[in-house]
Write a structure and sequence with these properties.
The protein is α/β, with parallel strands linked by helices. It is built from twelve helices and eleven strands. The protein starts with a strand and ends with a helix.
Length: 286
């Protein structure tokens, strides 16, 4: 069995490869990357590194040749472009004879979600199902890792700000999601046509601020920012417009309670519970 990981030099993809190496031999792993020069460490380990690009059907089809199961990791660009890229990847996999697709989706994959990127995942899920290929959909919750972006400001000012109201999010570490993906890729027959909701225990932002305070010995309080203030802050960073819109919508969804859902699917796939937000932050802030 030959396994392909797309975006293999990215933050999630590199972790998936790391976990795969504990489950299968290196010669069973292929890595699709935009820049082969960045994947030389994988070459040294005996991984089959291939040049792939979701914007190029022919190139992706070639990257998928000889592959039995492939992980499509969502990229980072605007909604319209990413939908097109994902459809290209699915078409390429089918043309190359891939039998099983695993896709990193999102826990609230609704086209009408205020988090605009959710529409990408809803479309890709539908497109994969319509392809006729066997599949596994990994509906990943938000990475716990993302919370670290607000820590420096919180330590400097004592304020941990977010326009989240009293909403909660079922955060889960990126590393745990990578391990779940590797578990599925290593044993695809156990996960045919399954959709997994991969999430942790919902937690509110006041509790997150308290955890940061406890871990650092600093006085930290949660500040419920007005949405327009938060959007202005994001725009001031020079972020792309589509990302500002998505992040602003994410907090609308948080206030609506869209991300409080939780599931034991991670434990079913990996065999243990995911790392808690408290344990992740305490470890990261040591």
């Amino acid at each position: 069995m030959k396994i392909l990981v797309t975006g293999a030099t990215g933050q999630l993809g590199s972790l998936v490869v790391k976990h795969l190496l504990t489950r299968v031999s290196a010669d069973q792993i292929a890595a699709s990357v935009r820049n082969v020069a960045k994947a030389q460490e994988m070459v040294v380990k005996g991984i089959d590194v291939r040049h792939g690009d979701f914007d190029d059907l022919a190139l992706m089809t070639n990257a998928f040749k000889g592959i039995d199961i492939a992980l499509i990791i969502s990229g980072e660009t605007d909604v319209e472009t990413r939908i097109k890229q994902h459809r290209t990847a699915v078409d390429a996999a089918k043309a190359a004879g891939v039998s099983h697709l695993v896709y990193t989706s999102f826990i609230d994959a609704r086209p009408e979600s205020p988090f605009t990127y959710a529409a990408i995942h809803a479309d890709t899920e539908s497109y994969i199902k319509a392809s006729g290929l066997s599949f596994t959909l990994l509906r990943n919750s938000f990475y716990t890792d993302l919370l670290m972006a607000g820590v420096p400001h919180a330590l400097e000012t004592g304020d941990f700000g977010a326009p989240a109201g009293n909403g909660k999010v079922s955060y889960i570490p990126r590393n745990d999601l990578a391990e779940a993906a590797a578990a599925v890729l290593a044993n695809p027959a156990d996960h045919v046509n399954q959709t997994y909701e991969l999430s942790g225990t919902p937690i509110g932002f006041a509790d997150i601020a308290a955890i940061i305070a406890d871990a650092t010995g600093k006085e930290i309080r949660y500040v419920d920012l007005p949405p327009e203030v938060h959007t202005g802050i994001l725009a001031s960073f020079g972020l792309p417009g589509h990302l500002v819109e998505a992040l602003s919508g994410m907090y609308v969804g948080t206030r609506n309670g869209d991300y409080e859902q939780t599931s034991d699917d991670f434990a079913k796939v990996v065999g243990r519970a995911p790392q808690s937000t408290a344990d992740f932050l305490k470890e990261a802030l040591k």
